[in-house]
Queue: 2 jobs
Job 1
Amino acid sequence: MTELIAEKLSVHAGQTALVTEADFRVGAGEFVALIGPNGAGKTSLLRASLGLEKASGGLASIDDENSAELAPMERARRVAYLPQQRPLAWPNTVRDVVALGRYAYGAAPGRLGAQDADAVERALTKTGLEKLAYRQTDTLSGGELARVHFARALASEAGLLVADEPVAALDPRHQFRIMDIIQQYIAAGGGALVVLHDLSLAARYASRMIWMKDTRIVADGPVEDTLTANRMAEVFSVRAKVEGRAIEIEGAI
Amino acid sequence: MTPNRALTPALVFASLLAVFAACLLGSTQMPIDRVLIALFGGGEMGDRIVVWQIRLPRALAAFATGAALGISGAALQGLLRNPLAEPGVLGVSASASLFATFSLYYGLVALSPWVLPIAAMLGALAATTLIALAAIKTRSVVTLILVGVGISAFAGAAMSLLMNLAPTPFTLSDMINWMLGSVANRSFRELGFAAPFILAGGAMLLASRRGLSALTLGEEAASGIGLNLRNQRILTVLGAGIATGGSVALAGAIGFVGIVAPHIVRPFVGHDPARSLIPSALLAGLILVLADIGVRILPTVNELKLGVVAALIGAPAFIWIAMGRRAIHD
C-alpha cells in the first residue's frame, strides 16, 4: 500500500511561486479529488510531490522515501502517473501502449515476461479494451484513447494512481466509465489523487477533496465537509447551490 | 499491424546477397564461380585483387555507412518523436562535413590520409557534445532541434565561406567530392578506422533502445513510467553522433537513407522505435549497397556520386511516404 505525503512543499518558477507550502497525504482506499481553478498550481503540486519537478522548499515522500531522490523506475513501480498531455508519437497497437506500463519492470513492447503479459491482459480487461488490443491507436476515438492511457497506468499495478484531468474533453458516458475504473481500482486496494474540473463528478466519486487556490491548499477534507456554497464562492468565484453531494453552479460572481 | 518476425532475417539475407552482387558487377563483369573462388582466397591474382581490394571493401563501406545512418535516424526519430528527424537535423552531418572541408582547405590532408576522416569525426563529436550539453539543460525537444538547426546553419555558412575562398580549383573539386558523398576507392584500412565508431555508436543506441519505446507516450508520461529522460537524451544523441561521425568519415555526407529506411521499416515492427533500430540499419545499408552498384554500372562519363544517387532515390521516396502518412495524435 503506497502513501504519498507532501510537507510544506513549495515550487517556484524563477521568482514566481507556483505552489506554496502545501501539506497533504494520500493513501490506500482513498479517492482524493484535487480541485481548483486554472493556474491554482494543481499540476505543479502533483509533479513536485512525485519528484518530477524540483521543489523549492519542503519535502515530498512516497512510502517514507524522498520523492526527489527515488530512482525513476522505483517511483514508477509505486505510483502510476497520468499527465494532462498525453500525446502518442506513433500509431502503435493498443496492446503495445499498455505494455509500456510495465517499463519500470524491465519490459518493453514485444518483450513481455509472463508476469508482465498477465498484468497487461488484466489492465485490458479492466478497461474493456480486449477487443481493441490489436487496433492502432490512431484509429481510436477520444474516449477509447482515454481508456488506453488508463490501462497503461493500471498495467504498472502500482499502489497509487495520480491522474491530471483524466476526463477532460470526454463525453458524459466516457467520463463515468473512467471514474468507474478509478473506483474499481480503489476498491481493489489502490489509492488515487485525481485533478478534476467537473465538480459534480468529483463530488459524486471522491472520498475526499483537496481545494487549491492561488498556489495554496485552502481546504482538505471529506466531500460533505468541504463542499459548501461559501467555498465555491471563495475558490472559484461562482454562485452555487450545494445539497449534500449534489452541486449546481448558477453563475459567476 | 503485428511485428513481422521474418523482417530482420530477410534483410540480413538480402544484404548478404547485395554485397555478393556488388562483387560480381562492375566495369568488368565477373562470373559467379570466379568471384566465389576469389572470395575464398583462390583463383587468379587479378580476380583476388578486384574482389578483395576493390569491390568487397567498397560494398562493405557502403553497407556500414548506410547502417550507421539508418540506426542513427531511427533512434533520433524515436527520441525526438518526429519521423523527419535524422543526423542532419541535429547538425551532426553538417558539422562533420565542415571539419572535413576545413582540413581540405588548409591542405592538412596532405600530411596523412587519416587527417580527413579524423576531422570528420571531430566535427561530428563537436556537434554531439553541443547537443548533449543542451540536452542536460533543457527539457524541450524543440529546443534541441533548434540547437541542431543553428549548428547546421553555421556549418553550412562556414562551408560556403571556405568554398568561396578556395585557393585553387583543385581544392574546390576535392571539397565538392567530399560533400557529395562517395565510397569509391575505399579500402579495408579506412573501413577499419570508421567501423569501431559505427559499432560503438550503434551499441549505445541498442543499449538505450527501450527508452525510445517509452518516449512514444511523450516526455512527461515517459518520465512517469520510469524513464530517466536526461540519460536517455545523452545516450541517444552521443550514440547517433558517434555512429554518424563514423559514416561521414567513411563516405562523406549522404542524406535521406536515415529518414527513408526507418519509414519503410516502421509498419513492420508495430511502429515501435526500439524494434525499428536493427531493421532500419540493415535496410539503409542494403539501400546504399544497391545504390552504389547502380553508380558503378551506369554508363556515365564521370562516375556518379553515391550521395547524389541516394538523394535522387531517397528524396522522392521520402516525399511519397510522407504524403501517404495518416494523421497521428500529436
Job 2
Amino acid sequence: MPITTTHYILLSAALFTIGVVGVMVRRNIIIIFMSIELILNAVNINLIAFSQQLQNGIGQVFAIFVIAVAAAEAAVGLGIILAFYRNKETVNIDEMNVMRS
Amino acid sequence: MAQAIAFYFIAACILGFAVLVVSTKDTVHSVLFLVMDFLFVAALYVLLGAEFLAAIQVLVYAGGIVVLYLFVVMLVNLKRPPEAHSDPHRRTMLGFLLAAAVLVEVGAIAVYGHSQPAMVPVPGAAMPVTGNTAQIGWLLYTSYLIPFEIASMLLLVAMIGAIVLAKREL
C-alpha cells in the first residue's frame, strides 16, 4: 500500500494529540513548553505533506515561518519561566495563581 | 515498499519518543527525548522530499531550541519535584478526555478529506530554478518577501524581549 498524504495527516494528528495531552496533564511548565514544540512539529508535518501532494514549495515556506515563530516563542517563554522562577522558586503551574481572583 | 517501511519505522519512533517526552519524570531526560523526536521528524521531512526543511529542523530545533531548553533546566535548580504540589481542583481525567476529543475530531477531518476527491496539483508560478533549496529561496525572496521581513522583525523583537525578561533588573 503506498504512503499517501492521509498517512502523514494521521501521524500528525497523533503527534498533535500527544502534545495536547502533555499541555493538559503535566504540571511542570518546561514540559508544557516542550509539548507545544511537539504540536508545532505536527503542524509542520501537515504543511510539508500538503506541499508534497500539491507539488509546490509554498507549504515549505510556511513551515519555515512556523519554525521562526517557534524559536521566538521558545526564547520569550523560557525568559518568562526564568523570571517567574526567580520570584517564586517554582516551575509548577498549579502554584502560578497570582492572577486568580 | 521500502518507502512504506521507512515511513512506519519513522512514525513509530516519532510517536514513541513523543510519549516519552510527555511522560518522563526527569526533565533532562525529557529534553533528550525531545532531541530524538526532532531528529526523526527531520528524517520524515527527507522522506517527503523537503531536504532544506530537514536541515533547518536539525540546526534550529535539535541544535538551538533544545540547547535553550537545557540551559533553562540547568538554571532552574529544583529543590523539590515540580509534580509534588498538586492542586486539589485539578482534573487530570478531563485533560485526557479533551485530548481524546481533539484526536477524534482531527482524525474525522482526515478520514473525511480522504473520502473526497483528491486535490489536483496546482503548479504555482513557473519557477526559474530547480532543486528544493533554490525553490524555497526563490519563493521567499519573491512572493513571500514581506512575510519574510516581518518574521525577521519578530525574531529581533523576541530576542530583545528575552534579554529584557532574563535581566535581573533594568
